[in-house]
Amino acid sequence: MGEDRRRRKFHKEQHDYVNQLRNYRRQGIPIFIDGKAACQERDWYKIFEVRDDGATYMADFVSIEKGIVSEIHFDLVYLDLDARQAWEGQRRLEEDRRRAQMQHYQSVLQKNQRIRDWEQNDIKQDDRKLEE
Hints:
Structural class: alpha+beta
Mean pLDDT: 81
Strand content: 15-25%
């Protein structure tokens, strides 16, 4: 029951926040996520995600003068540097594994191609012998 109440509260807070963003957009204030204009409201829900690498989005309300908001930017920030480094290490391991698999597959393909080439050479040589 407590978990359900927390989830509803979280969704209500998200909805209220998106409504506030909608009001800003109606006033002509552009909203950017990861440096790109976020025109679709469905993209705005991305800012509530906490990623596997420990990153979350932080809002930056840009004002030109007199405290008037001119743009809103959401950029990834890493709250836990250790989690980010662990995630990057894991990602590097996965990339290294993929690279090694690709090298293995390429070597197998090259080996199979050499075998086919040898077989074709043998067939050609047998054909020549038969012609003689």
